[in-house]
Amino acid sequence: MGMSASQARFLCLTARKNNVEFEGQQINQQRTSLSNESGSYYSELCNMVVPTPPSIDDYTKVSYTFDDGALTNTITSMIAKGGNEYSISYIQQWQDDYSIVSSSTSVVSRKAVGDDYEYRIGSATLRKMDGTFAGNIATEDIQNMDEEAFKEFQSSDAIKNDKYLSTLTQSQFVDLIEQESYYKAMLNEKNGTTEEYYVRYVKDSQTGGYTPFFYKASDIESDANYEEDNLSGSLPCFTIGSSTKTKEVLNQKGIVEKDSTGRYLSITLFDKEDEDKPGITYNLTTNTLTDEEAYNDAMNKYNYEQHQYNQKVQDINSKIEIVQQQDKSLELKLKQLDTEENAINTEMEAVKKVVSKNVENTFKTFNA
User: Fold this and answer.
1) Which backbone phi and psi does 131 adopt, to 5 degrees?
2) Which residues contact 281 (CB under 8 A, 6 or more apart)?
3) 213 with 199: CB under 8 angstroms?
4) Closest CA to 81 of 239, 213, 250, 254
């Protein structure tokens, strides 16, 4: 190789080496960027809050109850006043077998009678509880009827065709008005209204007695509830039945007896009006109550959050895996560049020797 060719080759190799070094620098910058990106993902993983499953203990509480005749009393708070004295609050609960309860409704239809309507369920006519009967005969009128007049009253279509009213004696009619006035007060207390009501009495096939069913007059008489004189939907219906009643008693003085573990054994309550009277002692029953619904809701929330957490971890791990693959590819390229640079350096050393030898030979020629 001549002098000029050697120099040209050396310059070419130098340029190539510079390009390889520049490519290496770029790859290192890319790998640094990938490292920062990977570090960011790892940091995100470390900062994620791992969902904690709910503990059944958090939804379980101990309550104390005591029975007072037909009443079951559940203690809601006991505030220590010093010594064994406490200010005690509790909820009384009992079953009221004579109260207003909701009932399933029946299909109501109406029929025009003069300027008014007659309302029916099947063949039974609904009667308004307004203190009067057939022909607007009031209670005092029935009470003052003689035997013959009452028989005539009983023979009227309005009474004769009513399976319940037709069974009543004269005194029972008078009592019924008072009873229905009580029904009306109970209904309005339950519904928070000052309504009028319609009623029908249905015979109980087992007991032989009659059970009343009540409808709000505003519902029965509303034109909006009818299509071609037939009820377009169901109406609220009420009857007499059994319901659970509660009453809260607050801040009653009492003395509590405990065992060595701190568990309450008995409670002595004093009269609120006269605390000097001897108190009544009741044995306490310990109950462990778990709010299953709240616990299940919390568990469902945990399962959802755990699913979200696992999905997020999986997404981040997938991104980290992609970054690692990219870094591996860049690392392979960098090794190839290192190999190429070593080859260039080897060739440059060889060219240097050729150039050096050419220079030496040239100087020898001129010195001869």
Assistant:
1) 85, 10
2) 266, 267, 268
3) yes
4) 254
**pLDDT tens digits, 193-217:** 899 999 999 998 888 899 999 999 9
User: What is the rounded radius of gyration, in angstroms, for the C-alpha atoms of the chain?
Assistant: 48
Structure confidence at residue 334 (pLDDT): 85
Tokens at 368, concatenated: 């001869």
List the structure tokens of 310.
Answer: 């696992």
- Residue that the structure tokens 């109501």 belong to: 108
SS3 content of the chain, % helix, strand, coil (to 5): 50, 30, 20
For residue 275, give the nearest of 137, 58, 86 by alpha carbon.
86
CB of 268 closer than 8 Å to CB of 66 = no
Measure the CA–CA gap between 129 and 200, rounded to whole angstroms.
10
Helix (H) or strand (E) holding 28: helix 3-47
Structure tokens belonging to residue 350: 């060889």
Determine phi and psi for 229, rounding to 5 degrees: 70, 15
The one-letter code for the residue type at 136 is: N
Answer whether 75's CB lies under 8 Å from 89's CB: yes
Looking at beta carbons, which pairs linking 120-123 to residues 24 or more positions away fall under 8 Å? 121/200
Instruction: Give the integer Cα–Cα distance in Å for 146 and 251.
Output: 59
Residue 368 has pLDDT above 60, yes or no: no
Band of residue 363 on the pLDDT scale cut at 50, 70, 90: low
3-state secondary structure at position 278:
coil
Handedness of CA 352, 357, 358, 362 (dihedral sign): positive
Distance, CA of 76 to CA of 332 (rounded, Å): 73
**What are the distances in angstroms from CA 289 to CA 56, 60, 62, 256, 300?**
11, 5, 6, 21, 20
Per-residue b/e over 132-164, b at no fewer than 16 CB within 10 Å? ebbeebebeebeebeeeebeebbeeeebeebeb
The two tokens of residue 181 are 């006035």
What residues form DSSP beta bridges with 95? 244
pLDDT in tens, 128-171: 988 888 777 887 888 889 999 999 988 888 888 888 999 999 99
Query: Any idea what DSSP says for residue 52?
Result: -
Residue type, 79: I
d(C-alpha 17, C-alpha 345), whole Å: 8
